[in-house]
Design a protein that fits this description.
Blueprint lengths: L4 H23 L4 H9 L12 H20 L7 H4 L48
Helix pairs in contact: 1-3
């Protein structure tokens, strides 16, 4: 029985996290304070180069293992640049009535209906005389 892609990725991510934690323990050389310092240094803006070398190696190994596992489960993993596949452009949102270019007049009004002049201004676009 084949697994769904979500199940395969779940297995891969769990294995990567466990391997990453083991790599952090290895990088701290068994010193609890060093492990805590390395853990505290990881935050959402941490780059790959900021991570300890053992953790970087673990992540690279996990990525290779993820592709291998996906392929062994029967999924195709392609690099669009190498495979010559051209990606489809993302669909553009449709401009609705009253929105964006060519959107027409009032929101909710049909496009073929002309705009009505505003009641506070004459239709010619001139301002009323000041009193």
């Amino acid at each position: 029985m084949t697994k769904s892609a979500a199940e395969v990725m779940h297995d891969v991510i769990v294995a990567a996290v466990i391997d990453g934690l083991g790599a952090l323990r290895t990088a701290s050389k068994g010193v609890p304070n060093a492990l805590l310092r390395d853990l505290a240094a990881i935050h959402p803006n941490t780059t790959f180069q900021d991570l300890p070398a053992d953790l970087q190696a673990s992540i690279q190994t996990s990525v290779r293992a993820a592709f291998t596992k996906l392929q062994s489960e029967g999924y195709t993993v392609l690099n669009p640049k190498v495979a010559g596949v051209t990606p489809r452009p993302a669909p553009r949102p449709q401009a609705g009535p009253g929105r964006g270019p060519g959107g027409g007049g009032r929101p909710g009004a049909p496009r073929d209906q002309p705009r009505r002049p505003r009641p506070d201004r004459p239709p010619s676009g001139k301002r009323p005389p000041q009193r």
